[in-house]
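Request: Could I get any protein with tokenized structure?
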Amino acid sequence: VQLVESGGGLVQPGGSLTLSCAASGFVFSRYGMSWYRQAPGKERELVAVSSVGSSTSYPEPVKGRFTITRDNARSMLYLQMNSLKPEDTAVYYCATSPIGFRRYWGQGTQVTVSS
């Protein structure tokens, strides 16, 4: 299993960014996928979930601003982030739902929201 995130960078407050996650080594369409983030000195937190049936869910801090989508044909996961705030600054990770006994993670991509 391999997950490779891309698309992070520096963006001004109020701006937008789209993250991508390329998945391989498993049947992508059969598993739920999620995006997490971790800011310096803070615990990793969930920011978006895409289930096998393509339903989605978001925690309150990002609801209405972030959108998770998936392309099962290309084994790709995306996170569209709008109206970004400085508090969205973090390393963003994509992750699988449990495969066997473990969850798999990408290496992360840095998102910095600053003027």
